[in-house]
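User: I've been trying to design a sequence by hand for this structure and keep getting stuck. Would you show me what you'd pick, starting by listing the structure so we're on the same page?

Assistant: Good idea, let's start from the same input. This is the structure you sent:
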């Protein structure tokens, strides 16, 4: 029974079928575009619109690229069920003092599946095997983010392609996002429109892309020891869903995360995970239950390059303060007096990393 459910799950993903809201008249294609990047945000209910971190901004909100302070890569792999694999890779780099850009790749590999044909002879319906087939979805995108004071905007242009049993579909799509953070209170806001573009033409089936709008808020408490995130997502032909979560840091090197993803209707939607950090390297793990299909595990790795970086989560550097169009303090604080800013930042950059509340 578990294998049967996994096969049905595979076919649903491969065909790009969405759960349509009653009376809306259909679903969408290229559903894999909704799958997140990395493992950190997935562990917190996949809520990342208001405070995207480093290269993860390529997926959650390209406006977040405006805040990055160093080159970063973000790679993730997960196994859904049986032979269904998904992976993402992102590379992000500062463009200048007020902008950043990056490239991203995402894929879903459905593995090898048995092709079954249905015959109806004399009222008797039978199924016959007719070899095997493979399926894969992938997208390649380029993103740019620019900031103006407390505001930032960003955009992504991406090519989308699917190949299932030698039947192909392609599309050109885009994302556009805005990001704002407060200088006086620990609050950041974000909004993004994702996957708008040309329709997905699959053989004789012409379907829409999974166009969606997300809005979110984030706050960072107790010197960044606790970080909370909340999003609301509304996709065409679906009702709105809540996504939220948070993390708790023990010291500067270990984080525990939990969240809720309201899009998961095959289980209770709760997620969890942990993260560990060593200097330039961060390793993240996310766990998501999918009922009878099985549990989903993600492993993500983030690495920050370049030599210029702030020391372990201390006050913002002069360069970062200049990027916020502020005047740096005339003298550095005495040793031992620095406050730690929020611990999710290890060099990639986000609105909340560029201000010390």
């Amino acid at each position: 029974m578990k294998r049967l459910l996994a096969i049905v799950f595979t076919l649903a993903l491969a065909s790009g079928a969405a759960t349509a809201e009653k009376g809306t008249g259909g679903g969408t294609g290229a559903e894999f575009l909704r799958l997140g990047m990395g493992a950190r945000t997935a562990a917190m209910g996949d809520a990342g619109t208001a405070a995207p971190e480093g290269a993860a901004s390529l997926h959650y909100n390209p406006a977040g690229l405006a805040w990055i302070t160093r080159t970063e890569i973000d790679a993730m792999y997960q196994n859904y069920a049986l032979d269904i694999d998904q992976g993402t890779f992102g590379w992000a780099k500062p463009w200048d003092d007020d902008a950043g850009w990056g490239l991203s790749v995402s894929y879903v590999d459905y593995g090898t599946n048995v092709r079954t044909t249905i015959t109806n002879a004399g009222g008797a319906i039978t199924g016959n095997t007719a070899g095997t087939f493979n399926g894969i979805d992938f997208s390649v995108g380029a993103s740019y983010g620019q900031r103006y004071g407390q505001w930032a905007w960003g955009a992504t242009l991406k090519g989308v392609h699917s190949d299932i049993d030698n039947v192909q579909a392609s599309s050109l799509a885009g994302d556009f996002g805005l990001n704002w953070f407060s200088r006086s209170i620990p609050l950041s806001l974000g909004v993004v429109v994702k996957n708008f573009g040309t329709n997905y033409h699959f053989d004789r089936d012409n379907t829409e892309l999974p166009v969606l709008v997300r809005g979110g808020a984030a706050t960072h408490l107790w010197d960044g020891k606790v970080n909370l995130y909340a999003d609301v997502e509304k996709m065409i032909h679906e009702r709105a869903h809540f996504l939220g979560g948070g993390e708790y840091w023990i010291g500067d090197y270990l984080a525990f995360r939990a969240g809720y993803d309201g899009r998961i209707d095959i289980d209770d939607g709760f997620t969890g995970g942990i993260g560990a950090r060593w200097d330039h390297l961060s390793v993240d793990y996310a766990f998501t239950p999918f009922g009878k299909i099985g549990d989903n595990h993600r492993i993500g790795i983030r690495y920050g390059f370049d030599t210029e970086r702030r020391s372990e989560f201390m006050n913002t550097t002069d360069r970062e303060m200049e990027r916020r169009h502020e005047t740096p303090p005339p003298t550095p604080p005495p040793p031992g007096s620095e406050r730690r800013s929020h611990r999710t930042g290890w060099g990639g950059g986000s609105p909340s990393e560029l201000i010390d509340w």
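That's my pick for every position. To get oriented when you compare it with your attempt: The chain has a mean pLDDT of 78. The two ends are 53 Å apart (CA to CA).
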